[in-house]
């Protein structure tokens, strides 16, 4: 009989995040040698990496930081299950990915995965974590923003999980006092664009054409269709443009009005939701 205890199984599970049966099998094969069992778990995971390529990693977390108040860096790191996402080893792994993103200045996924981390690259780090955990693990995206003032808001959609939503708001210096409230608003109301000027022409043209068709189908006189369409476009802007939305903390004002009262300007924002 292998020379290990329930405490050894528990300790190795906590160290690796692997399943109980996998840990027991590894300890049995290693005759209780914890270091050898750890290596067996890792090798088994590496051999099965290719088998996990078609599996979906839609759980996970966002990790982010602001450097010197002017640069924001955020990464989305995914696992297959929430059980892994809240594992401390996975959270520590995500922090290493974020640290590599900050240190390397990577602004795209290809650059981040090839960035140095420890004795290898971030991709090596991902492969190693997948091997130990036994799930498909991936870094889905990296976000980098810069500006006069960068504010960060991280939101937990469930109290027992790490942050699932991350928001950066970039403002001028005058916006520092209101930026965090705006970031919380963005987390909740999910605007797609900063303002009307930022709605891509092809998106706006498609929306206008749809509204024109809908209005004509309703039997409205053709001569008043343009006016009705413009009114409905205003409703679209109110739903999708940050400055046109009713402010979460005071719905009697729009976000644009609140910013104007503060003498502030939002120059950019990014909202990341795990799996979205």
TrEMBL record:
Main localization (coarse): cytoplasm
Keyword Protein biosynthesis: yes
Domain Translation elongation factor EFTs/EF1B dimerisation, chain residue ranges per copy: 72-275
InterPro entries the UniProt entry points to: EF-Ts_dimer_sf, Transl_elong_EFTs/EF1B, Transl_elong_EFTs/EF1B_dimer, Transl_elong_Ts_CS, UBA-like_sf
Subcellular location: Cytoplasm
Role noted for this protein: Associates with the EF-Tu.GDP complex and induces the exchange of GDP to GTP. It remains bound to the aminoacyl-tRNA.EF-Tu.GTP complex up to the GTP hydrolysis stage on the ribosome.
PANTHER family membership: ELONGATION FACTOR TS, ELONGATION FACTOR TS, MITOCHONDRIAL
Family membership noted in the UniProt record: Belongs to the EF-Ts family.
Name by which UniProt lists this protein: Elongation factor Ts
Organism: Schaalia naturae
